[in-house]
Amino acid sequence: MADFNDMNSIAVDEAKSNIAFNVMRDPIITESGIKANKDLIVKTDGQVPLGIVSKNHTLIPYGDSMDFITSELAKNSVDYKIRESLIMPNGNMYQEYVLDMPMGNPDGQMINPMIIAHGSYKYQPLKIIGGTFRFVCSNGIMVGETIKSIAISANSGPNVLQSSITDELASMLQKFNTVSQKYVQLAEENYNKLLASFIMVNSLSVNFKQVVMAALVEKNLIKMKVEQLNNKSLEGKTASQVFKHETGAEFSAWEFYNVLTDVATHKVSSAQTRTHVYRVISKMFGV
User: Fold this and answer.
1) Number of domains in the chain
2) What pTM value is reported for the model?
């Protein structure tokens, strides 16, 4: 059975190298020669502009954010592996840390807590979001409806990382027990209402929905005929007008949840879009 010890991961040095680049603040001067109360943040390699921020906006190098996260995990005696570490097209940092803390779940497959770290030079310097990782399919997902994220404000000041989030992180880790309980409840719920909600939600693309429905068909969970949509909005359409389906076999909300997380993890290539899909799924299932 796949577990934490078997998973592929990125070495710490490589993970840090993947997110390392230098930035500088370039004061904005008006046409009349007056300095504005804002700076342009520029990636020094290639002079790429990343955005405009206020003078008191806190800039935290991504490598420092990573050191901060790993040191806080060490304070909580939590071993981890880095699954993903990259810079998104908008210049923001994205990382996934899978933690060595097996969780209870309905089907006995290995699932561990995961934290997702977002960093930005333009927006919130650092945000840590709770999630879970299912080894059998290598599926990740956020659990933002159950566990409150940890955020460092853009106005926190240059010495913010000298403080500690040890207590906040410890609280986050304890709440994964609640996530386990919610997963057990999903195994006892029918998929019907959630499938209808999924079909009608406007914040997921038609393409993503088609891939999910095809995955349900492949697993013989439903039988379906999908009408040609040409990527038009689902707004104003009923579920029966869009996806005609009938049950192939009874299945639980937990099984549906895992199909969604599988598609989100492996079929959505953009980390930015995947984060959005994770949030929608978390909200839909109340996890």
Assistant:
1) 2
2) 0.84
